[in-house]
Each structure stands twice: as structure tokens, then as C-alpha cells.
Amino acid sequence: MSKVCPFVPTRDMVTSVAFYRALGFAVVHQDHTVAIMDHEGATILIQPHYVEDWASNWMAQLRVDDLDDWWKRTDGLSATYPSIMLKPPAMQPWGIRVGFLSDPAGVLWHVLEG
After folding, report:
1. Which of 26, 21, 22 lies closest to 43, judged by CA?
2. What confidence score (pLDDT) does residue 9 get?
3. How far apart, in Å, are the Cα atoms of 58 and each of 4, 31, 38, 68, 79?
4. Which pLDDT score is estimated for 77?
5. Contact (CB, 8 A) for 22 and 14
6. How many CA atoms lie within 13 A of 109 on its CB side?
């Protein structure tokens, strides 16, 4: 079995770790160089490096079992993290229902069922 475990940029490790924990990711390991986080087998590595052009063009897709149930985790997030973007799940022109959100560093996530 192969897995892709992408490195995710951050402006602030504490803020990013808290954000991903609010979305249901668990901290597997954290030190000053990396935070390894897991969401039901989907692993990301948050690194304390930030380049605006890279972060604002970095995208990832998270597939979940129940999109509507998972999306409830975003309730109240914009009050805590005012810089994030949230677009609730909607059918896209390519025929898949997707919710979009950005993290505090500007990383764009596509969240869908499947």
C-alpha cells in the first residue's frame, strides 16, 4: 500500500495545529520542525515554513465518508480563524459535490465524499 503524506505550509505552527485539530486531525508527533497529523489514515505534515506564493497555490483533497456530517466541524471556525474561507458543499460542474475551505495559511482544501 502506498500513501501520500504532503507537507503543508504554515505561518504559525500553533495556529495551524489547532485549526487541523478542530477539523478532526490528531497530532501523531510534534516538535519545532514538524507536526504530523492524521485524520483516519490521511496524514499531513505541517512544517514551519511559509512562502505566500506557494501556500496560496497549494491545494489538497480530503475524501470523507459523510460530507454533510464532516462539514459540521467547520461550524464556528471562521469566528476563531477569520482569515479562512469556507464554501459549503455544493454540486460542481464536474459532477462531484465538494465543500471548499482554506486554512489559516491560505492552503485550499477540497472536501468530498468517497
Report:
1. 26
2. 93
3. 15, 23, 19, 24, 23
4. 96
5. no
6. 25
Residue 55: per-residue pLDDT: 84
For residue 67, give the H/E element and its range: helix 67-71
Amino acid type, 20: Y
Count of helices and strands (H, E) across the chain: 4, 8
- Our CA angle for 20, 35, 7, nearest 5°, is 85
Q: pLDDT digits over 51-101, tens only?
A: 988 888 889 999 999 999 999 999 999 999 999 999 999 999 999 999 999
- The SS3 of residue 13 is helix
Kindly list the structural domains of the chain, giving each domain's residue range(s) and its CATH number in brackets, ordered by start.
7-113 (3.10.180.10)
d(CA 15, CA 50): 13
pTM > 0.90: yes or no: yes
- Res 3 pLDDT > 90: no
Of residues 55, 64, 59, the one with CA closest to residue 83: 55
